[in-house]
Amino acid sequence: MSRALARQLIFRLPLLALINAACGRTPSSYPPEHYLLITHPALNRITIIDLSTNKLVGALPTHKLPHDMLISRERVLYVVNSGSQCISTYDLKSPEFWNYARNFMNQDSANLYASRTPSANMMGQGQPNNSKRASGDTAAWTTLNRDPVQSLPVTFAHTYLTDTLFPEVARSMHEKVNAFSHKACYDCHDRSVGGRPFGPAFTNDSSAIVLVHLRGRNITFLNSRTLSIQRQIPLTIPAQYSPIEAWIAPDQSSCFVTCRNEIGESKPGLILVVDLRDGKLLKTITAGIYPWHLLADPTSTKLYVNNFQSSRISIVDVAKRAIVDSLIVQNGPAMMALLPERNLLVVSCFYTDRVLVVDLATKKVEKTVEVDSNPTSLDFSSDGKILYVLCGGESSLNIIDFAAGTVREKHKMLFGAYAFHPVDDRQSRQ
Description:
Elements: H1 3-22, E1 34-40, E2 45-50, E3 55-61, E4 66-71, E5 76-81, E6 86-91, H2 95-111, H3 136-142, E7 157-161, H4 171-176, E8 197-202, E9 208-213, E10 218-223, E11 229-234, E12 242-248, E13 254-260, E14 268-275, E15 281-289, E16 291-296, E17 302-307, E18 312-317, E19 322-328, E20 333-339, E21 344-349, E22 354-359, E23 364-370, E24 375-380, E25 386-391, E26 396-401, E27 406-412, E28 419-424
Antiparallel strand pairs: 1-2, 1-28, 2-3, 4-5, 5-6, 6-7, 8-9, 9-10, 10-11, 12-13, 13-14, 14-15, 16-17, 17-18, 18-19, 20-21, 21-22, 22-23, 24-25, 25-26, 26-27
Helix pairs in contact: 1-2
């Protein structure tokens, strides 16, 4: 079997199986009113699940390694592509977006490796490389990738670099092929390259997006309307650490940043406190192994930080800039959700395939729910009765009856599901 055919089958079989499975029930409306957007980093794809039927209703191409997502009040979807140093935006209000998503879902496998040319939203032009002695990297840099993302219509999709700088060692080649005019490293590089943008969040007024670059080792502020770079703050940390996520204090004066140590070393990470007025490092807090997300309580006086390569969640006092307590859960706490009215913290545990409910008053686990392997994203229904859990091992959506603490339904998704973002437009359409 040729490599090209094998790659096509990897994409084709799971998607067609999902399409066939979806034929048994017809969505109540299209576009759906209540749905999940799901990233698939291994496939460079986004899929859409209609929550009224729990069926796949759309798919879209994106750039290399799509991970985290944001959605603006104006219903613009921002997808951070960590392997191509860019953000892709999609207008969820556009009828063309939904028509394209449905058609692409049906035609993805047939057209995946068809020759194509860049559309107007890809400003760079692929330049053929005639040198027989060119290395694989050079060839990748000078030939536009043949991927459907290059032909997304500009009526609803655009791409923006999260960092316009290139590594000094590669500067001359980038200048030679005019790579500075491109909007994504994936235009030319088939492999994962760049500064590794990660952990996006809106500022309090939603005027900017703040994210970190794992490899670039900085905090970056982007204008949320134009995606232009407003500011970058370099992080002066030892070489073995990489920033993962940032949280901005309500007064906008300081920022907390989680940093992991080298993967596989099982060494403590850091939580940095950075002064946003002058960019200086105010404090370095020793954290657990692989500190990741920063979840604020409703008063923004406490931060819950999951230490992914351990079984501990750290509690940070924002005013004291210190870890003041911790919660013991199970190995691989991946995502957290607060239920402040009940004083509960819900945690997905990636390595033990469980969702835990922790009573914050007693700091004890009061409920354990067995789910499919490698649970990550969590979200509650509007009435709080249903908990949706994405499980990346089987790429399944587990639907939990929260009061009963049992999995009510399981639904298969496309291979390699990483994270989801819920959208509920039911009230706005009434």
